[in-house]
User: Fold these one by one.
Assistant:
Number 1:
Amino acid sequence: MAASVDLQQLQADLDLKCSFCLAYFSDPVRLTICSHNFCRSCITAYFKTKRGASCPLCRKGFELKDLWPNRELAVLVNLISREEKEKESERQEELELNRASDSQSSARRRDVEKEEEINEISKQLEMTEQTIHLLRKDLTKTKEYTSQIKSRITKDFCCMKEYVERQERNTLMFIEKQQQATQQKIEEVIDQLCAEVNKLTDIKAQMEKGLDNLPERDGYKGSPLTMDKITLDEEKIDVLTSAVEDLKKQLEMLLLEKYPGQFPPEQPPDLHQEARVCSLSSESRAENPGPGISSQFSQWADDVTFDLTRVYQRLVITAQNRKVMVSNHPSNYEPSPKRFCISQVMCSQSFSTGCHYWEVITKDSDGWAVGVAHEMIGRKDKLGRSEHSWCVEWVGPQKQLSAWHRGQETLLNREKPLKVGVFLELQKKSMSFYSITDKEMLLHTFEINTSNPLYPAFWLYNLERNGSLTISHTNRR
C-alpha cells in the first residue's frame, strides 16, 4: 500500500499526460531546447504539419533532431499504468468475491491473478533492464561527444594562440621597421652634417691662415637648427597600440559576457608561482593588470579586494578580485541582501583606526567614482549622495572632476586622473584623494567624523560601454 501511496503522490506532482492526446505518454520524447515532453507520434505528426515548428508550450523553435527519448518518464508512466491496472484488478476481485460462493473458484482466480502479476512484473523488469541499457548507451555517447568538443576547443585555442603570436611578431616587426627607417634617416642627416662640419672646419682654418684660394661651399646651406625634426610615425604606432588594447579587452570580456558566472574566479598563485612572479622582468611586470603601489604612502598600503556579495549584477569581478568590468549580461552571483541595485561595488576590507592607503587604475573607464562608504549605505544609494559615503567622481559627457558628500558637489579643476590614490588618516579624521603619475598630486581632502568602519567603494558610469577599474597590488616598503 505504501508503494501505491507514493505513486499517487508522484502522479499528483508530475504531469504524465501528453498535451496533445491528453493520455498517458506513449514512447515519450523530450525537446532538448526546452525539456518539454510529448508522445513521439504526437509531436512528429505536429511537426509535419508546420513549417518552422515551435514547441506548443513555450514557442521555441525545434527540429526532429532535437527529440530525445525520455526513458525515465517512460518507466514512470509504466509504473502508473501498472498501479491503475492493479486498482482495477482489486475492484474486480472485490466484485467477484461478492458474487462467488465457491472457495475453490476463488482460489483459482487468485492463482490466475498471481500469475498475471508475475507476468506483469516480468515485463516491468525487462523494460527496466532495457532502459538501463539505453541510459548506459546515452552515457557513452555523452562522453564521446564531450571528448570531441574538448578536442575541437583545444584545436581552436591553439589556432588562436598561433594567430595572436603571428600578429605579435608582425606588429613588433612593423614597429622595428619604423624605428630602423627613422634611424636611417637620422644617421644620413648626421653624416651630411658631419661632412659639412669637416668642410667648414677646413675653410675656417684656411681663412685663418690668410689663403685666398678657398674651396667652394656647395654643401648644406643654412642653420642645422632649422631642419625638420625626424621622428617616428607616432600616429601609425598609436593605431597599432589602440588595436592591441581593444583586442585584449574583447578577449577578456567575450566569454564572461556570453556565459556569466560559468567560469571559476582566478585563484591566488601558490608559493612556487609567487616565487616565479617575483623573478619576472620589469617588462613582464608592466603587463600585469594591477601594478604595485610605489609612492610616499606605500608604507600604509593595504591589500583590498572586491566583495562578491556587494557588487551589482551587471559588473564582473576578475584578476583575484582586483578588477571590476562592465558586462553586457547579468552575472550569476549567489543571492545576497547586500547586493547593490546600481552599478557599484564595495571591498571586503574595512578600516576604523590607523592610516590606510590604496590605489585604483581609472584610465580604462569613461566615468567612475572612487571613495569610501559605511556598511549601512543603501543598496540604491549612489556614492557621495548621502552622509554615509565620500568620493571623487569623473563623468564622461561633462568631462569634469568633482568631489561629493551628502549630495553636495565640489568642482575640481583637474584633468582626468589615470590612477587615483586614497589615503585615510582616521586619527586625524581626514581622507585625501590623489592623482598618481610620477608623483602624487592632491585632488581633494574631506573631514570625516564617524566611528563606523569604512569600506573602499566604487561606481562605474555607462553600462553600455565596457569600462573597468583595477585595484593596484600592495607593495609595502
Number 2:
Amino acid sequence: MGTRWSLTIDCAHPAQLAEFWALALGYVRKPPPKGFGSWEEWFADYDVPEEEWDDGAYLSDPDGEGPALSFIKVPESKARKNRLHLDVQAGGGREVPWEVRWPRVLEALGRLTAAGATVIQEYEALGRPDHLMMADPEGNEFCLL
C-alpha cells in the first residue's frame, strides 16, 4: 500500500489558481474537515487570523482517487523553471490511439487557454503533434497530452 500524499503549489492568488486547476483536472473544492460546516468555521476554531483566511485554497478529486491539491499564498513570484510538473492527460494518455487522443487534447487546449493558460512549446513524435508544454496563469509549467 502506498503512502497518501498531496501537492502544495505556492502562488500569488490561491483562489484563482485553484479555479484554473479545478477546470484542468476536473477537481472540486475540498470540503472542510469533518465536524465543520465550512472552512471559515475550521479557521475560527483553530484561531487562524481572519486576514489569513484567503491565503489558501484546497481541491480534491471528486472520486477520491487522486491527490489533494493545496494552493498557498506566498510573497515571492515564480523565478525559474519547475523541477516538478504535472502531466495533464486530457487525451487519455499515450495508450489511447492518436486519432482519438489528439482531438481530446485540442479540446482541452481550448478550455485551458480560455482560462488563462499559455502554450510554451509543442512537441512532435512520429511526425505529428504529441504533447504541449504549457504554463498555468501564474507561469507554472505542465504538459498537456
Number 3:
Amino acid sequence: MIRFSLCVIGAGLAGQAAAEAPKVATDIAPIHSLVARVMDGVGSPDLIIPPGASPHSNAMRPSQARALQSADVVFWVGEELTPWMAKPLSALSEDAQLVTLLDTDGTVLYDFRDVTEEGHEEDHHDDHDDHAKHDDHSDHDDHEDYAKHDDHADHDGHADHDDHEGHDDHAEDKHEGHDDHEEGHASHDDHGHDHDGIDPHAWLDPENARVWVQVIAETLATADPENAQQYRDNAQAADVELADLQDEIAADLSGMQARSFITFHDAYQYFEKRFGLETSGSVSLGDASAPGPARLAALQEKVAEDQIVCAFAEPQYDTRLVKTAIEGTGAAIYQLDPIGVAINPGAGQYTDLLRALVDGYQACANGS
C-alpha cells in the first residue's frame, strides 16, 4: 500500500508565492467537498473520480491523469476504497504530498462486516482503537459537543459501468486492461473477493469528517503558509456546521431505529453506527461486487425472517437484485446513495449527501 507521512512536505511547497494556492486533487466527491470547504476563498481542488463512477473500479480519463500529475497535494480515502488508484498515484504524483485519510489520527475505523454463507452479518473489531484516538471523539473538546441514472435492465443485475463519465475518452488512457478486469470482477461470486480489513466508507460518519477537515487545513497550512489562517478559519467553521448537522440528523432519524431494512451494498455501517441504525443485510458486499446465487438465496431467507419493511437501492446500479431479494415480502424499495451521484460537486456536497441519506431513511420510516 502507498503510505506517505503527513509530516513530510515537499520543500517546493513551503516556498510557494502568496498569491498561488497549491494545486490540490481529491479522489471522490465527498472528500472533494470537504477540501473545497477548507480551501474556500483561496482555491479549488480537482476531482479525480466523477460522482457517477464507482470508486471501487474506474478507468482514469486523460484530464484526470493530468490533474494528478500537476497536483502539489492529493487527498484520498485510501487504497482500501480505490486500489486501482495506487499505480497512477505512484507514477503521476510521486512529487506530491499524498494524504491518506484513513491513516490519520482520530479517524474512527471499522472492519468490513463478516458475511457468512447464511447471509448474516457480524462485526469484527467494531472500532480500531489504535486508529481512532478519540473514544467516539468525546475528548474532542474544541467541538461544541455521492444526475440520477435510469435502471440498466440490460446488465443482468451487474453494476452499471457505463456511468463512467466520458467513457469514450478512455481510449486515450493507458489502462487498456480495464475492460477485462471489469468483466472478471463482475463474474466472481461473493467468495471471489477479499473482504477482510478496513471498511473504507468512513466519510459517512460525520465525526470522521470533522477530524478530516482539521487534517486538511493543517496540511494546506503547511504547504501554503501565506493562507494558513484562512484554511484554519474555514476548518473551524466547517467543524461547527458538521456538529450542528450531526445533531439534526440524530433527531431526524429517531423514528428509523425500529425499522428493519436491507441495503444494496454494505457501505453504510459508519452512518448506521453513528446514528443507532441496524441493517439486516445487503445484496452486495462492501465493494458492490455482484452477489452469487447462494448469497441471494440466503438474503431472501433473512428478509423473510426479519420481516424487512424497506430495501434501499442505489441510483447507479440495477434495482433488479434488490427486487429479487424482497420478492413476495411486501417490502418497499427506497434509495440511498453513499457517494452523491445526483449532487453537484462543491463545498456543500458533503452536507447535501448526508441530508439525502436522511431523506431516504425517513421515507422508509414514514412509509412514504
Number 4:
Amino acid sequence: MMVRTIAAALLLAAGAAHATDTVRASGAWIRVLPGNLPAGGYATFENPGDGKVSITDATSADYGEAMIHRSSTETGMGRMEMVDEVPVPARGKVAFSPGGYHVMLMNPKHPVKPGDTVVVTFTLSDGSTLAVPFLARPANAKGLAD
C-alpha cells in the first residue's frame, strides 16, 4: 500500500512539473512581405497554470530560420533585438504584437501568400513544445481580422 501511495505521489508531482503543457496561443497571424523579405508573426500566449513558463525558441518547417525578437523605441529611434526568452506569467498572458515581441520568420522554403497557414513550433522552458498555426496576412495588415 505504501508503494502505491509513493507511486501516486510521484505521478502527481510529475504532472505538476508539466503544468506548462496548458500554455496555449490564440489570434496567430503573420505579415507576409514581398519576395524573400522576413515575415513577422504575432499571437497571444496564455498560461492558465500556477507556474511561470518562458518561450525560448521557435522553428517552422516553412522557413529556414525563426527567431524571437522584440521591437522597441528609444529616444525616438526604433530598434529590434533578438531575445533568449519571453516569460509567460502564471495565470497570465503575453502578446506578440507589432511594435513588441514577435517571431521573425526568414528564408521561406516556398512562396507564402495571404490566406496560407504556416505552423510555428515554440519551445517552452520546461522542454515542451507548442505548435501554432499562423494565418498569413498581406503586408498592409494590422491584425488578424482587418
